[in-house]
Amino acid sequence: MTDPTAAEAIATYQRLVSLRDEIDVGRADWPALADFFTDDAAYIDPAWGRVEGREAIREFFVTSMAGLTGYGWSTPQNWVQAVGPRLISQWDQILGKREDGTPWKVPGLSILYYAGDGLFCYSHDLLNMTHVGQTLRDMQWKPPPEAQRPPRAPNRDVSLPAAWAHLAT
C-alpha cells in the first residue's frame, strides 16, 4: 500500500531539489528555497547550527551560500525515502572539479519532516565536517571575498519545533 503522506513528502522534496538545482546553475536565487518551509520551521546546518523560522531560514540561505554559488559547488541528490512525514535524502556535496575532471565531493544526508501543504517544518543536514575540511585543504580552496564564516558557537539543538513534536511519534 502506498503511504499518501510519504508520497506527498517525496513529491514536495523533489520540487525543492529541482529549485536547488536551478540555484546551483544560477537560474534561481537561494531565498526562494525558504518558501518550502513553515513559518516556524527549524533548519539545522552542520556548520551554522539551528536556524528557526522561515524568514530566518531565508536569510541563512543568503548568508551561508554567499561566495559558494557559481564556483562549481552543487548538491546532486542520489536517493530519497519517506515513511509518513519523515523523509531522508542522500546527496553529494560537490565542491568543484579536480584537474582530471572528477568531482571533489563529500556525501551528505538530510532528514526532513513534512508538515503538509507543500511545506517542511524541519530539515537537518548531516555532513562529516572533517571530510569537508580535508577536501577543502586538498583542493587548496580559498574562499572568495563574499564568503561568510559560520558562527563560532552555533545552536546545536536538533529537536523538532514545539508545534510539530507530534510528528516524532
Question: Could you explain how this protein is built, in words?
Answer:
This protein has about 170 residues and is of the alpha+beta class. The protein has one domain: Nuclear Transport Factor 2, Chain: A. It is built from three helices and six strands, in the order H-E-E-H-E-E-E-E-H. It has helices at about 5-25, 55-65, 130-140; strands at about 35-45, 50, 75-85, 85-95, 105-115, 120-125. The protein has a six-stranded mixed sheet. A hairpin with a 3-residue loop joins strand 1 and strand 2. The longest helix has 21 residues, at about 5-25. The chain starts with a helix and ends in a 31-residue tail after the last helix. The model has no long low-confidence stretch (mean pLDDT about 95).
How do you describe this structure in short?
Helices cover 25% and strands 33% of the residues. It has 169 residues and is of the alpha+beta class.
Quick tags:
about 170 residues; alpha+beta; Nuclear Transport Factor 2, Chain: A; six-stranded mixed β-sheet; 3 helices; 6 strands; globular
The CATH topology: Nuclear Transport Factor 2, Chain: A
How big is the Rg? 16 Å
Which bin fits the share of residues in helices?
25-40%
Question: Which second-level CATH architecture applies?
Answer: Roll
| Strand line-up in the sheet with most strands | 2-1-6-5-4-3
**Low-confidence sequence ranges:** none
The average pLDDT is 94
CATH class group? Alpha Beta
Shape: globular
State the domain count: 1
* Total helical segments: 3
Number of strands: 6
Structural class computed from helices and strand pairing: alpha+beta
Largest sheet: 6 strands, mixed
Straight-line N-to-C gap: 21 Å
Q: Classify the beta-strand content into a percent band.
A: 25-35%
Elements, N to C (H/E): HEEHEEEEH
